[in-house]
Each structure stands twice: as structure tokens, then as C-alpha cells.
Amino acid sequence: MTILGIESSCDECAAAVVLDGRRVVSSVVATQLERHAEFDGVVPEIASRLHTEWIEDVVARSLGDAGVSMAGVDGLAVTSRPGLAGSLLVGVSFAKALAWSTGKPFVGVNHVLAHLYAPLLSEDVAYPFIGLMVSGGHTLICRADGFDDITVLGTTIDDAIGEAFDKVAKHYGFGYPGGSAIDALARSGDPRACRFPSTNLYKGEHRYDVSYSGIKTAAIRQLDQFWNPAYERNDRNLAAAFEKAAVDMLVSRLLRAIEDTGIKTVVAGGGVAANTYLRARLAAKPDLRVIFPPLSLCGDNAAMVAGIGYHMLARGDRDGLELNASPRVAGFKRSA
Ligand code: KG4
Ligand code: ZN
User: Fold this and answer.
1) pTM above threshold 0.85
2) How far, in Å, is the centroid of ligand 2 from the Cα of 269?
3) By CB atoms within 10 Å of each CB, which of 7, 22, 243, 253 scores lowest?
């Protein structure tokens, strides 16, 4: 089946053509990055307006790159939740209109599940696995028993991990987006320069949860307290120390989940899955199979949407023209 995927949940306007949930025939991502950079964050009103201007061309380019017309497309998949309401609505409305005018079936896709599907476009991975979905809006450690059957083990009790990277980078003017700016600086910094307090939510129901407000505040307001005076106080050292503290917290909870469940396969997704230190830390665990998406599929893209959409359409899922965008989603199942 040839599926056209459409993604517009945040600031990337994307369309892709994917064959049978596996072969990415084309993937176009038009990023609005530069248009939001001067505000150090995504401005929802600008994002939705640009999606409106760009989406027709982005979809046409993805079909053109794939060498197919709508007649050769078997179904459409579009991110319908969660995300920025105005941005989501552009993709959803466009997909509905295209599906209606061509008579093709379509489904609305959950963006979080789509991120976790991204690595599966290129790898065969058997369920169950431990999913690690880390982005600007989400931090999730889960057990995945199917492409749309996940049980949340742990999450953040405050900021998402990418959000913490973004806020620290914004405060110090490291660049935008903050996660990749900190990643780049950290490569030539020394994480020993600053020892951030480790947040321990160890007990009971928080066994796999993380919290980023503590290290974020420490990095922004309490550096004097935590800086090791033997090290030069510069951006590179701060970036390295913050990155290590943020990623180590995540990895400690992930390893706990792996140990408790006995599941040794990890599938990572989301923008923060591009992080160099996170990748290196997990690659250093020889007893685990850790699958990261290629860098081009870590951030928002439509290939992951078409990929998961294939499985939904293949089993008969269909949405109607009443499909609406939902900025939030009802919570996933939590483990008992
Ligand atoms: O998945 P994504 O593109 O959009 C959301 O759904 O949020 O993720 C964007 C997030 C941002 O917070 C960005 O700073 C972070 O991913 N990010 C990174 C890196 N590249 C992007 N964080 C850490 N290291 C990176 N290399
Ligand atoms: Zn995303």
C-alpha cells in the first residue's frame, strides 16, 4: 500500500510517501526554524499561518519526489493529535479535503506513537520493547506491545527533557533550537565542571519518572552553588554538565525499567533522540539492543506518520470528515 503522510503539529510542515509502512519513497520537511528563531521558541500564530501557505506545495513536492499522483496513493494519514491546535488543524483540514476530493481513505494519527514508529521504518523490531520518546513536548518511558498499544511506565512530572534544554539554551543565548545548540557546545566541554543536584523521585509510583525543573533552575539561577571552581566557567562546560545531568537522569530510569521488565530492546524517538551523549551512553550497553531513528527522522517528519498510518489503514481503521484536531490526548495506559 502506498500511503501519503502529512505532519503539521508544530513548526515543521511535512509530507511523505511510504510503501507498506517500511519504504520511505519521499520525505519532505519544510522547517520554519528560522522564522521562530528570533523569538527563541515556536510562535503558534506564525506556525499555523506558514503551514497554510506551505502545505499545498509540500504535499505536491512529496508526490513529485515519489513519482506518484494521487491516483497511485491508497490512503492518507495525518497527525491529528497532540500538538498546537492551529497547526494541527491545517494538516487535518488539508488531508480531509484531499481525501474527500480523491475518494481515498484517511486516518488521524497520534504524534507520540508516530515518533516511536520512526525507527521501525528501517528496522525489524519484535514487540514488546521499551519505548523512549523524548522531545520538546514529551518525555515517556513505556512498554510497547504493538504500534498503538503502549503502557506508560515513566514520564516527567514537570518539564519535558527537550523543553529543559530549550529553556537553559534560551537563558544563556546558546542558539535555537536549544537541544542541538547544547549538544554542539557540549562536545568540547567538560561535564565535571558543574555537578548538578540529582533529583530523586525514587519511591513507589515515581520509580520511572523524571523531573527537570530542579536542574533547569540550578543551571539558570544557582550556578555559583554547583560550579566546581577548578574549571573555567564557560558555555561549553555548562552545556556539557547540563546535558550529562539531564541525560543521566533519563538513562537511570530507563535502565531501571529494563531491569524490572526484563525487556532488553529499546526503541527511541523524538527530537532529543538526536542527542550525541544519549546515543553514546546507550551504545555503551552491549547487552541491550537500542534502535535510534536516523537523524533525519528524529525530529518531526511525515514518514513516521505514513508508516504508522499504513498499519492503521491496513487493519481497516478509517476516519470520517468529522475528524478534528486535538491539542491534547487522553492519557495513555499507566502501569499498575
Ligand atoms: O520531536 P521534535 O522535533 O518536536 C516535538 O515534538 O517536540 O523535538 C524537538 C526537541 C526540542 O526541544 C529540541 O531542542 C530537541 O528536540 N533537540 C535536541 C537535539 N536536537 C533537537 N535535544 C538534545 N540534543 C539534540 N541533539
Ligand atoms: Zn514531535
Assistant:
1) yes
2) 9
3) 22
